[in-house]
């Protein structure tokens, strides 16, 4: 994110915006045709990226004309258009856009929408981080069990995963649930065996 000077009331967005603004990533087929939008956003204090890597630790929102697939993670986005089209508006709403703006742009409304999106993202960050950690843990459990099956049955990774998947289907459970149970049971068995070995050494 970037900091802006609130005393700059001559900018397109005025001085109503927060001191810290999100980075705006433009996803458009022809950036040159949106020069007025880019210059207006930059005049409002936004950092606008047309290409390249995202800044580290930045809150990023997207502005899209719908001509390009979303890059990277699915960030919230605002749709833009040169003309009014009911079909395009309906498609935009269906795809989950948080706003739909048609040229000539109202930079006050557009800037406020982008800042509201960024604020909502920051509010939801702990939940998204927890979900990402859970997903990583699930992947690790499945990979661990696949490795166990590969070693035990001397099979390739694809076959090991397929056996795990078939078993989970017979149990009417998700693969990750079965994998997590196996990992937990394996860890418990290992702890028990270490405890038995420790007692045996003492005696």
Helix/strand layout:
Layout: E1 2-3, E2 20-21, E3 23-27, H1 35-43, E4 47-49, E5 60-64, E6 77-81, H2 86-94, E7 100-102, H3 107-153, H4 157-170, H5 175-202
Parallel strand pairs: 3-4, 3-5, 5-6, 6-7
Antiparallel strand pairs: 1-2
Helix pairs in contact: 3-4, 3-5, 4-5
Which descriptors would you attach to this protein?
Arc Repressor Mutant, subunit A; Rossmann fold; disordered N terminus; alpha/beta; two-stranded antiparallel ribbon; 2 domains; five-stranded parallel β-sheet; 203 residues; 7 strands; 53% helix
**Overall domain count:** 2
CATH superfamily membership of the largest domain, which one?
Answer: Response regulator
| Beginning-to-end CA distance, first to last residue | 63 Å
How much helical structure, as a percent, in the residues?
A: 40-55%
- Based on CA atoms alone, the radius of gyration comes out at 26 Å
Tell me the major beta sheet. 5 strands, parallel
Strand order of the largest sheet: 4-3-5-6-7
Q: Uncertain segments of ≥5 residues (pLDDT<50)?
A: 1-14, 127-132
Average pLDDT score: 74
- The count of strands amounts to 7
Task: Work out the helix count.
Answer: 5
How does CATH name the architecture of the largest domain?
3-Layer(aba) Sandwich
